[in-house]
Amino acid sequence: MLGYLFSRLVSVIPVALGVSLICFLLVHIAPGDPLVAIMPIDATAEQEAEMRAVYGFDKPLPVQFGIWLSNAVQGDLGRSIATGRPVGPEVTRAVGNTLLLAAAASVIGFPLGIFFGFMAGYLRDTVWDRIITASAIAGVSTPNYWLGMVLVIIFSITWPLLPSMGAGPGGSGAWVWDWQHMRHLVLPAITLAVVPMGIVMRTTRALVSDILDQDFVQALYAKGMTRTGVLRHVARNAAPTALSVIGLQLGYLLGGSILIETVFNWPGSGYLLSVAILQRDLPMLQGTILVLAMFFVTLNLLVDIAQSMIDPRISRA
Amino acid sequence: MTFTTTPASVVIEVPAAPTVSYWAGVWHRLRRDPAALICAAILLALIFSATFAPWLGFADPYTGSMINRLKPIGTEGHILGTDELGRDMLSRLIYGGRLTLFLGITPVVTAFVIGTTLGLIAGYVGGWINALIMRVTDVFFAFPSVLLAIAISGALGAGIVNSLVSLTIVFIPPITRVAESVTASVRKLDYVDAARASGAGNFTIVRVQVLGNVLGPIFVYATSLTSVCMIISAGLSFLGLGVKPPEPEWGLMLNTLRTAIYINPWVAALPGMMIFITSLCLNLLSDGLRSAMNVRQ
User: Fold this and answer.
1) Within a domain: residue A98?
2) Using the beta-carbon criterion (under 8 Å), do A254 and B276 form an inter-chain contact?
3) In this predicted model, which residue has the larger pLDDT, A65 or A165?
């Protein structure tokens, strides 16, 4: 177990390096000079060279990568080209809001997905199974940015029950755990939850229906175990795979939230990204992507470890 | 030569059984799946109307009149209403299918070709080449797909070509991974050894023994990616990263109509409805193909 833990931890290092390299290269695959957006048209050659030196663009690429990486490890993600402010603190604040939204979506999506998926697998080929399978595939097929608009049309415009914009009354950025703020979370969280819920439903259904076909289930019934007892065994067998799918979906919530945040003006990393894209603020884009990707890498690591704890076969392999 | 060739008279005559080809079998099973058939029909209709839109007598999707802007659904002459510049919605939705479907399908096809090649090489050759290809793939897997698409598109800037490039990059790693694992498992089977023993070279083995057996599962997997690809590419346009105005494209239309959501909400939601229906059909068809081809994943 310890050996597995260690090798899994070590294997993260090259992936994390690769991820940083890709994020670093984002600025350099961009067409044109990254400074063009902020340099005044009448800037002299000396002024341009000075700016270049300030941002470090005058050094060879591998050197730039080394400097950038060592800064990033220390939490310095560079300065925004649009505002000149440090990227790090802004990204941290925004990612906090994104995580809040993703957590809310997980609380809605995963338990429901597992419950209905389990039901469909257990009641295979009944009307319930068909209804659940159909709604799962509809959920998976939904462009969530559109679903967000539809929910706004229904619950904010037709019946003005819930707010459609921002993360709190009056566009305040600070989050407070009261109903005034939680109301703002309802629509974006539901929107974000629909696709992962569909995926979890489909996976759980397939898992449960596969496991019920196995001989040991017959054996358990034959020795007189109650239905609840058998279901407990089925759940235990489905857990590792279900967990890995949930972990993957948790990561996709971070990606999916980018579009949802744009729809609901939610002040998270997605909103930050869309502003950065609009202003062609490459350091901001780079920093946000790096932080989100690192979250995803860590999440995958945690899921793998949790999985090996539930299912001892994994760490022995 | 000490080997004796088998005398012709000893060859056992196998009675010609009525064999059904693999694809005939797939088609036979698919024909009994009403959901898949309906979806295929809807998709074909969408592709047909999008391809031949200029000859089907729809209104011009680029010109509108500002007097007739944001008409509701059911307006005379504009059955699905008009958009924020008074352009006919029905026409724009039909024309919009061109770019949306193109941007949904092309990256997956390209990624299918590249990913299958990489996966075949990695799975068949093994060793350090496998390690190299698969470790690079792992790095790309460390990004959620939407995030990676937005990152690359965000850096490259808006435009159709940039969208195509970023979406292709997003879908190569998953296809490579599936192709590698399928190839690696086929490679260990006895008939590959048999082919090698009978003197077949690597290229012949891959072409004859391996390719035919790995393409099915990879193909089914790739079809399940088309709906994801379409949703992401429309999402890129929705963020202002893909197609540029005034081109009709469902994601971009959804974005520009967002401002009209308080005036004429259901017209504003129409382009998303199209994305939803198309992606639902793609998913149901892919599910039908999967069970008809007996692929397990």
Assistant:
1) yes
2) no
3) A65
Question: Which chain B residues are within 8 Å of A293, Cβ to Cβ?
Answer: 142-143, 147
Which residues of B, range 142-201, sit inside 8 Å of A by Cβ? 142-148, 150-152, 154-157
Distance of alpha carbon B184 from alpha carbon B125, whole angstroms: 9
What CATH number has the domain spanning B33-56+75-293?
Answer: 1.10.3720.10
CA distance B183 to B212: 11
Comparing CA positions, the residue from A113, A118, A116, A110 lying closest to residue A231 is A118
Across the interface, of A14, A137, A262, the residue whose CB is closest to B284 is: A137
Mean pLDDT on B109-121: 95
Q: How many folded domains does chain A comprise?
A: 1
Which residues 6+ apart lie within 8 Å of B209 measured at CB? B186, B191, B192, B195, B200
Q: Which residue of A has its CA nearest to B155?
A: A30
Q: Hey, is the C-beta of A56 within 8 angstroms of any chain B C-beta? A: no
Q: What is the pTM of this model?
A: 0.88
Q: Nearest CB to B276: which of A31, A142, A285?
A: A142
B189-211 residues labelled b (16+ CB within 10 A) or e (exposed):
eeebeebeeeebeeeebbeebbe
Q: Quick check: B136 pLDDT over 60?
A: yes
pLDDT (tens digit per residue) in A14-36: 999 999 999 988 888 877 666 66
